[in-house]
Write a structure and sequence with these properties.
There is one protein chain. By secondary structure, the chain is an alpha+beta fold. The chain folds into 2 domains: about 130 residues, no CATH class; about 180 residues, Glutaredoxin (3-Layer(aba) Sandwich). It is built from 9 helices and 11 strands. Strands 1, 2, 3, 4, 5 and 6 form a 6-stranded antiparallel sheet that branches. β2 and β3 form a beta hairpin. α6 crosses α7. The chain starts with 11 loop residues before the first strand and ends in an 11-residue tail after the last helix. This is Thioredoxin domain-containing protein.
C-alpha cells in the first residue's frame, strides 16, 4: 500500500473475509449510511465484497463518510482501486474505534484484501501497526499549514506556497543521494511547485550530517542556488564523509558553491545556526517523518525512494487536484 500509510495500514490477503466482532458488542441503533462500493468512478464487472452488515457498525464515530473521504485522500490517485468500509466498531479502549476496510481492484479475479486501523477518541489520528498518522476528511491540511509556516530550507521552483513539495533529507544519507535525480525531475515536471530541501540530519548514525546541515544553512544565506550547488557536491563526494576526510569534503563542496570555506565554517559554529538545525530536526520529528528521504506533498508524506516515479507523479497531481491548485504540468498528450 502506497501513499502515506505504506508502513502503517498493512494490507493482507484474507480468505473468506469476515469482520471480527463479539456477541456482546452493542448493536447499531440505525443502519449506517453510505455502505456502497467505493469505485472512484469506474464500473467493476461485479461487486467483489460481501455486503456491509449494520451490526458491525457499533461506534458513533467516525462516520462512514469520513472514513471514505480519508481513504479517497490516500487512494484516489489510483482509479483501479475499489473498497468498502465493512466495520466501524467500539473497542475496550474508551472512545477508540476500530475500522475495517475491504480492498480490491477492477481486474478480473482480483483478490480481496483487508486493512484495519484504530481511530483515536478525538477523531484526529489513526493508529495502525506501530504508526500514528493524521485522520479526517482532509488528513494532510494541518501538516500542510505547519510546513507553509516553518519549512525554511532552500527552495527551487515557484515562489508561492500553495503547492509545496518539502523533501526531508540528510546529506550523509545514501538513499537521499539516490533521490536527488527524482527531485530534479519533479522540479521539471511540476513547474508551479515550490520544492524545498529541509534538513533532517540523522546525527546518531551519520557523524557529519549535522555539520553538513549547518554548512548548508550558512551557504543558503548567500543564495538558494548556492545551496543546491553545495548539496550536489556533498552528495557527489558522500564517500568522503569520514573521520579522516569529512571536514575537507564539506569545505570542498562550499568551494564548488563559490564561497569561502573558512567563513562558512565560522558561521556553522554559531549558536544561531545550530539552533536552526535543531529546529529543522524538530520540525521533521513533529511532522511524523521517520525516515530519510521523505517527501511532503502539501502535507502528504511519501517515501520517495519506495514509489515508482510515474506513481509518485500521479499522487502529487492528485493531491494538487484535491487542494485546488495548478501543478503547471502540461496536459496529457501535449
Amino acid at each position: 500500500m502506497l501513499a502515506g500509510l505504506a508502513s502503517v495500514l498493512s494490507v493482507a490477503v484474507v480468505a473468506g473475509a469476515q469482520t471480527g466482532t463479539t456477541n456482546t458488542a452493542p448493536k447499531a441503533t440505525a443502519p449506517t449510511p453510505a455502505l456502497q462500493l467505493n469505485d472512484l468512478g469506474q464500473t467493476p464487472k461485479a461487486d467483489p465484497f460481501p455486503p456491509a452488515n449494520p451490526k458491525y457498525f457499533t461506534a458513533a464515530s467516525p462516520t462512514v463518510d469520513t472514513v471514505n473521504a480519508f481513504l479517497k485522500a490516500l487512494w484516489g490517485y489510483d482509479s483501479n482501486r475499489i473498497w468498502r468500509v465493512e466495520a466501524i466498531q467500539t473497542t475496550a479502549a474508551p472512545g477508540v474505534s476500530k475500522v475495517v476496510v475491504f480492498i480490491s481492484d477492477k481486474s478480473p479475479n482480483a483478490k480481496v484484501q483487508t486493512a484495519a486501523f484504530f481511530v483515536t477518541p478525538d477523531g484526529h489520528h489513526v493508529i495502525a501497526g506501530d504508526g500514528v498518522v493524521s485522520f479526517g476528511a482532509t488528513p494532510f491540511a494541518d501538516l500542510r499549514k505547519t510546513l507553509e509556516e516553518h519549512a525554511d530550507g532552500a527552495a527551487r521552483g515557484a515562489a508561492g506556497k500553495d503547492f509545496m513539495l518539502v523533501e526531508f533529507a540528510d546529506l550523509e544519507c545514501p538513499h537521499c543521494k539516490e533521490a536527488q535525480s527524482t527531485m530534479d525531475q519533479l522540479v521539471k515536471d511540476f513547474p508551479n511547485a515550490r520544492v524545498i530541501f529541509q534538513p533532517f540530519p540523522l546525527a546518531q548514525i551519520h557523524p557529519f550530517a549535522f555539520k553538513g546541515a549547518a554548512y548548508g544553512y550558512c551557504v543558503q544565506k548567500h543564495s538558494d542556488a548556492a545551496f543546491f550547488t553545495y548539496a550536489a557536491a556533498v552528495f557527489d563526494t558522500q564517500a568522503g564523509l569520514t573521520a579522516e576526510t569529512g571536514d575537507a569534503t564539506l569545505k570542498n563542496a562550499v568551494t564548488k558553491a563559490g564561497l569561502d570555506p573558512a567563513a562558512i565554517d565560522a558561521c556553522a559554529a554559531t549558536p544561531a545556526i545550530k539552533a536552526q538545525v535543531d529546529a529543522s530536526v524538530k520540525l521533521a520529528e513533529d511532522s511524523g517523518v521517520n525516515q530519510t528521504p521523505e517527501l511532503a506533498v502539501n502535507g502528504h508524506l511519501l517515501p520517495i525512494t519506495q514509489i515508482p516515479y510515474e506513481t509518485l507523479k500521479k499522487i502529487i497531481a492528485y493531491q494538487a487536484q484535491l487542494d485546488g491548485v495548478s501543478t503547471g504540468a502540461p496536459a496529457a498528450g501535449k
